[in-house]
Design a protein that fits this description.
Elements lengths: L9 H12 L23 H5 L4 E5 L3 E5 L6 E5 L5 E3 L14 H5 L4 E7 L4 E5 H4 L6 E6 L2 E8 L4 E9 L3 E7 L9 E8 L5 E2 L5 E5 L5 E4 L10 E4 L23 E6 L2 E9 L4 E6 L8 E8 L3 E7 L2 E6 L8 E10 L5 H13 L12 E6 L1 E8 L2 E8 L3 H15 L5 E5 L3 H5 L14 H12 L2 E5 L4 E2 L8 H4 L29 E2 L5 H9 L7 E3 L10 E3 L2 E3 L1 H17 L3 E5 L11 E3 L13 E2 L2 H6 L4 E6 L6 H11 L2 E6 L20 H22 L4 E6 L5 E5 L4 E5 L5 E3 L2 E3 L3 E5 L6
Parallel strand pairs: 23-26, 23-37, 26-27, 27-30, 30-33, 33-34, 34-36, 36-37
Antiparallel strand pairs: 1-2, 2-3, 3-4, 5-6, 5-11, 7-8, 8-9, 9-10, 10-22, 11-19, 12-19, 13-14, 13-16, 14-35, 15-18, 16-17, 17-22, 18-19, 20-21, 24-25, 28-29, 31-32, 38-39, 39-40, 40-43, 41-42
Helix pairs in contact: 6-8, 6-14, 10-11
């Protein structure tokens, strides 16, 4: 294949800025008579909004009306009378928006495309379709289809909108999109102002970054720019040479807005692998606060041939046979709160599955079983696997936790406990290491402790070929056709430890073979930590075929389904939404967001979605930079407490392959663990392990959590003493109120 290289033009640079900062990067002076058509001020918008809306579908809860001339729709809640619209009703009065940001307000679709010269360009449905007589609205029984034809570009995109019991469903089938070789679609933004609020509204935007975050409406943080993050984390096919310590993953493909006594939640049933989540407070690009998804249908990569000479190559392959499906749930009254929004996402993730998860005793352990240690024999250096925590030692740890902290059934994941894992191969066998006690020692541990013991398996990454996987043939390649590497990073510099410590990704078309090989050798009722299989997502460019992230997502869910059907119980360290229905436990669930500059408050939204369906733990308390805050966050989110442990008192971790682990020796942790676990059990006794009914933070900063049974938790994560009526909470402390005590 012949690759044509070119120096970035000014237009390409401008388009790159657009991708980074959103369409707000283009803020042309709309008084000019010479600006391109797609940057006009939308002066015809008033005429368009005067067109009539026709009610086309109704059910018990809602009625759906559409303006067949301009493609806008409104949804009316029959009980409250509240109306939601695809576009802001007073958009023509927005004096803040300029250039394309003004016509964006009147659009249901934004499109970025690549022309035949390889330059990036942008348009929207108002300027490029509606004003060019390219829009057709076709009424259907349960909704309508809006066909957006961009006649000057040769691009056509149909959007189907259906009325549902909770609101609407909007979808785009890639097979119905038409484009030409001269203009290829790069990115699509769907209904960017459906989840929006004006400068007169009160409430917040919900962003599921990490545990979750709120952006207060009109928070005056418009100078920080917009939030934009890839759903399901970065595409792992593209090497990340620097660790970003403050970045958290988006595990849930959702966003929402609360205004007064109403709320809306958008959720991606399909298309999450292509999606980026965006959010901006008012006066960032327009006068509206809004959250929305854009979808990158094709990828690009940038490379340099010499200093200062950047080149960009685009994927020009046909669009995959896939679709985007976004459901929007509209809530009112008591449901229009964080708990109601979490319930809406629960229904989307778990479907008809009934909540039945038990919180248990509150302890999760990640135990480091062994490590590779440098040794000498007659002056000759060599490396040997050395025990860090034997099965008998782990039995003693669990026995002490049962005696002193009341933990009768802990959950434990065993790291580096079998040969395939320590050798860096994909897992095909779980036979325990002899230095840990072998199979007999493992069986004794299982019987004596009564714990759920999850053995760590690698089904998605490897550092050494074998067990049917070859690095050259079966590793993921990125768009440059180079094999992708995953790194471990130094916590001090955030740089890779060394190229020799890198791992490789299993190509999506090979994942089935890896799982099938393991399933053949699984013991009955196996308990497995599937780790990265649940939280990594990537594309693959191989043999002139593009495998988008949706292909990997499908392969992952198929393998998780096979493992469940084999009788295995599964856990993972954080899990994307598509993996959650197959898991029995999720550990190291983040208790904070990535703290983007536009965020105002972290909330335990991810945990509220898991509540009742899956038990879960916090990140390891002992690996946090601030133990007291980590503990308070675990209490707030209803998490099991998590600790990373090793027994061995003699080996220095910095001299082994366990160099990234710190403050993990059991002898130094035992008293802290006992105290904190007793506190968790006291809270669960008071709340009867019920879920969160409401969560608020007052003006002073005191967090109040009310549980379904009427008990409450007052939590102070500040450096000041705070009060709530007759109750006083000291700095970095908490107060448990029995049911009926809260006034």
């Amino acid at each position: 294949m012949k690759i044509r290289l070119r120096r970035c033009t000014a237009l390409m640079l401008a388009a790159a800025i657009l991708l980074t900062f959103g369409f707000g990067a283009f803020a042309a002076d709309d008084s000019s008579d010479t600006v391109p058509g797609w940057m006009t001020d939308g002066s015809d918008a008033k005429e368009a909004t005067d067109a009539e809306y026709e009610t086309i579908a109704e059910n018990t809860h809602f009625s759906l009306a559409v303006n067949a001339e301009n493609g806008r729709f409104t949804l009316t809640d029959k009980k409250s009378g509240k109306e939601w619209g695809s576009n802001p009703p007073d958009a023509e009065e927005d004096d803040f928006a300029k250039g394309i940001n003004r016509t964006n307000l009147y659009s249901q679709l934004w499109v970025q495309y690549i022309d035949k010269a390889g330059s990036e360009n942008a348009t929207n449905s108002h300027a490029g379709s509606y004003r060019k007589d390219g829009l057709q609205v076709k009424i259907q029984d349960s909704g309508f289809v809006a066909v957006y034809d961009f006649p000057e570009l040769g691009i056509t995109i149909p959007i189907k909108v259906e009325l549902t019991d909770t609101g609407i469903k909007a979808s785009i089938a890639f097979s119905e999109i038409k484009e030409t070789a001269d203009n290829l679609i790069y990115n699509i933004t769907l209904y960017p102002y459906l989840c929006a609020a004006s400068m007169q509204d009160t409430g917040w935007l919900l962003v599921p970054d990490g545990s979750g975050a709120l952006i207060y409406l009109n928070n005056q943080k418009n100078t920080f720019g917009s939030y934009r993050q890839e759903v399901y984390g970065r595409d792992a096919a593209y090497e990340q040479m620097t660790l970003l310590p403050e970045e958290e993953q988006i595990y849930l493909p959702a966003c929402g807005v609360k205004m007064q006594d109403g709320a809306m939640v958008a959720y991606l049933e399909q298309g999450g692998g292509y999606a980026y989540l965006n959010a901006a407070p008012s006066e960032t690009v327009t006068s509206y606060n809004h959250a929305y998804f854009d979808f990158q249908l094709r990828r690009s990569y940038t490379f340099s041939l010499e200093a200062g000479d950047e080149n960009k190559e685009f994927d020009r392959n046909p669009l995959p046979d896939d679709k985007i499906v976004m459901t929007c749930s509209f809530l009112n009254g008591e449901k229009a709160e964080l708990a109601g929004m979490a319930e809406a996402v629960q229904n989307a993730v778990f479907g008809e599955r009934q909540p039945k998860a038990s919180k248990g005793d509150g302890l999760f352990l990640q135990t480091e079983q062994s490590t590779l240690q440098k040794k000498n024999f007659l002056g000759i250096p060599y490396h040997a696997q050395t025990a860090l925590t034997t099965y008998d030692q782990l039995t003693d740890i669990l026995a002490e936790m049962k005696e002193k902290a009341g933990i009768s059934k802990a959950r434990v994941t065993l790291k580096n406990s079998h040969k395939d894992e320590v050798k860096g191969k994909v897992t095909s066998s779980l036979r325990p290491l002899g230095i840990l006690g072998g199979q007999k020692g493992f069986d004794r541990l299982k019987e004596a402790s009564g714990a759920e013991l999850y053995q760590s398996v690698r089904l998605m990454t490897f550092s050494k070929g074998g067990n049917g996987v070859n690095r050259f043939f079966d590793a993921v390649r990125n768009q440059s056709k180079a094999i992708t590497r995953l790194f471990e990073y130094q916590l001090s510099t955030y740089q890779p430890l060394s190229p020799g410590g890198s791992r490789y990704l299993v190509a999506p078309q090979k994942l089935s073979d890896v799982a099938d090989k393991l399933i053949k050798k699984l013991p009955a009722q196996a308990t497995l930590d599937v780790g990265e299989l649940a939280n990594l997502l990537y594309s693959c460019y191989k043999d002139k075929i593009v495998y988008p992230r949706s292909v990997t997502e499908k392969a992952v869910t198929e393998q998780l389904s096979k493992l469940k059907k084999s009788g295995a119980k599964l856990t993972a360290n954080g899990a994307n939404a598509y993996a959650l229905p197959y898991l029995d436990y999720v550990y190291h669930v983040p208790t904070s967001s990535g703290r983007h500059s536009v965020f105002d408050e972290d909330v335990p939204f991810y945990q509220m979605v898991l509540e009742g369906y899956l038990a879960y733990s916090s990140p390891a308390i002992n690996e946090s930079a601030n133990y007291s805050i980590a503990f308070l966050k675990a209490l707030e989110s209803g998490s099991d407490l998590s600790y990373t442990l090793m027994w061995n008192q003699e080996i220095r971790p910095d001299k082994t392959a366990a160099a990234g682990i710190f403050h993990c020796r059991y002898e130094q942790l035992r008293e802290q663990m006992i105290t904190e676990l007793n506190a968790v059990q006291a809270l669960r006794k008071a709340t009867e392990s019920s879920g969160i009914k409401s969560r608020t933070r007052n003006s002073e900063g005191l967090i109040q959590i009310v549980y379904q049974n009427g008990a409450a938790l007052l939590l102070n994560d500040t450096d000041k003493t705070l009060t709530n009526g007759k109750y006083t909470v000291e700095p970095k402390n908490y107060l448990i109120l029995e049911k009926g005590e809260l006034q």
